[in-house]
């Protein structure tokens, strides 16, 4: 017999309950059972019996029914939640539309392989490997000591060797030492009887030859040795999280990045939290220190004028949703995989998580996003493409793929709630509201 408004109005409260309230709860119980939350089904059945027994008043029943209908109509949109459900993300993606607010990519073998071709910032790629040690040249502000040897019995500079080994002081070759000369802003030093001699931009050997040419015709067969006593121009400036911020002088030995870092007293932060920013001219590149330590090719030669900034900047990712903990989590390693990221977040919550709704949010460079699939028209010209990676942990193969999926700095990991979680919240809310009514009805029926 079909249920109509007239049959409900004429029926007893218990019959009304059978006709209206029970059909509403029956599909809820079935949906709950389908999502493996069996603990709600007995509760529903017990509440049905209590309601049928206790609702003796037509007015009580109608008020309760109106309240339940109002709650059920607004439950999905009004219940608190940690974020969107899987269906909400898929709906916002708009798979059938020509444009999307983001790219939704399933974590598959093809996607993992495409991400392996992503190029990370690199000192070697940006500044070259420098297989040949860069030679130091003289610059303004450098201090030079000049030793001059002359042949013949009548030297131009002095008959007394000054600050030169006695083995060279012979009757035919007499050394003279000119006190330290500071290379001026014009790039020159002063040599007696020769005037200002340009040496800036020259190597030591080239500067010696320049002084010898300047003395030709003024003394007999001059031989010149120049020593760099104060290195002010060929330096690297090191600042930040180091023991001693300083201008570290370079030599013809060819100091590399780690040599200069040691010359500044070493770092003050843990290695896995340290970032190195190297600036040369108009090019600036940041690389984690752990990458330099694990890849000798990144330990490049430094050049005069380089700036090295050491910062404490741990690589982190952020976790939201149905996991053991929601937090910003540090890598504490040179790299971590998606499986490790989920584990560090406490794993999926057994009571709330949707294993088909594990998402990773990231901005990818356009060339990387293009390798993942064709870009929608509204994102084709963007330098960074918003990409949402989706992982289905109900499939065994997904765990192997997640081991090969590398987490990046500033990634966002989100695990959505299972659909049955919203039903649990709704039932709890209904219980909070209806329990006082049921209790009152029980008291009323026992006192009569």
Strand percentage, roughly? 15-25%
Strand order of the largest sheet: 1-15-14-16-12-13
Radius of gyration over all CA atoms, rounded: 40 Å
**Range of helix content:** 25-40%
Count of β-strands:
16
- What is the overall silhouette? elongated
Distance between the termini: 34 Å
CATH class of the largest domain: Alpha Beta
Average pLDDT metric: 80
Low-confidence stretches: 31-46, 161-172
| The number of domains | 4
| SSE pattern | HHHHHEHHEEEEHEEEHEEHEEEHEHEHEH
Write the CATH fold name of the largest domain: Outer membrane lipoprotein wza fold like
CATH superfamily of the largest domain: Outer membrane lipoprotein wza domain like
How many helices? The count is: 14
Structure characterization notes:
- With 448 residues, the protein is α+β, with helices and mostly antiparallel strands.
- It has 4 domains: 5-78 and 430-447, no CATH class; 86-118 and 316-421, Outer membrane lipoprotein wza fold like; 123-132 and 235-312, Outer membrane lipoprotein wza domain like (Outer membrane lipoprotein wza fold like); 143-230, wza like fold, CATH 3.30.1950.
- 36% of the residues lie in helices and 23% in strands.
- It is built from 14 helices and 16 strands.
- The chain has helices at residues 5-10, 13-34, 40-54, 58-78, 86-93, 109-115, 123-127, 204-215, 257-263, 289-294, 338-344, 366-372, 396-404, 419-447; strands at 103-106, 143-151, 173-182, 188-191, 195-198, 223-230, 235-240, 246-249, 274-280, 283-288, 307-312, 316-321, 328-330, 353-365, 384-391, 411-417.
- The strands form 4 sheets. Strands 1-15-14-16-12-13 form a 6-stranded mixed β-sheet.
- A hairpin with a 5-residue loop joins β7 (235-240) and β8 (246-249).
- 25% of the residues are buried.
- The model is unreliable at 31-46 and 161-172 (pLDDT under 50).
